[in-house]
Amino acid sequence: MLSFVRGAAAGVLLILNTIACCLPLFVLAVVKLVLPFDAVRRRVDPMLNALATAWVTCNGWWQRSDWDVEEPATLSPGAWYLVNCNHQSWVDIFVLQRVLNRRIPLLKFFLKQQLIYVPVIGLAWWALDFPFMRRHGKAALRRNPQARHDDLLATRKACEKFALVPTSVMSFAEGTRFTRAKHQTQRSPYRHLLKPKAGALAFALHAMGDRFESMLDVTIVYPGGVPTFWQFLRGEVPRIVVRVRELPIPAGFTEGDYAGDAAFRASFQQWLGTLWDQKDRQIGHLLAETAG
Length: 292
Description:
Layout: H1 2-34, H2 38-59, E1 66-70, E2 81-85, H3 91-100, E3 107-109, E4 111-112, H4 121-127, E5 132-133, H5 138-143, H6 146-160, E6 168-171, H7 180-186, H8 199-208, E7 214-221, H9 229-233, E8 239-247, H10 262-291
Parallel strand pairs: 1-8, 2-6, 2-7, 3-6, 4-5
Antiparallel strand pairs: 7-8
């Protein structure tokens, strides 16, 4: 009963916090919509980001877990970052926001196009310039190769907005949450991860050019098992382990044509595959350490 009350209270606090931050955010969004000029964006976007940062900070009031976090001391809220992470639960988003809040610029996630229609929060994501993407499967791309170029143009258009103020572009390379069923269906070569999809990362690098300071590779582990969001609200996630490492972006990766250059695409996928091998081993080590 106590955990239910705790979860309900946390849910109410989350809703109230969202409403309190969204009301002024929507006002600023209207200003940006009516006056779509760079000079206006440079003034309005920092205020929008500040409201979102306040939302993240206030959410920390109801989050109850034992946090085990290691991250570089060199992170800066005034730089641009490309952020990549494994994906297991909707809780991951709140974990990333809490761990990186005020240490780097506000995280901007790649979202499915359909999520723009989510009441209230969909409009907030739009106002904050979260990039909305249409996902095309391999079969759809074979039927319509132009769709790959449409994705690139959409990513470039979204990322061009990020050049005005420091931004962290966030991507879950797996493209979906890890489950054992998906793992088996994919026949993933990794023990703890799905196969990574390189497209979003490559398109973001191409769109942003050399603006990114570096790439942040984040690994999240839940030693007690992957939680549901309701368990997170109830405070029933005993421990959350997060490791952040800062990696240089290989020379030439901001200029290559991922969609049209097969050699570059193979090189990029090999680089990401190496990162995924390292991440898979790291997850195994972290699970073994926490189990001991």
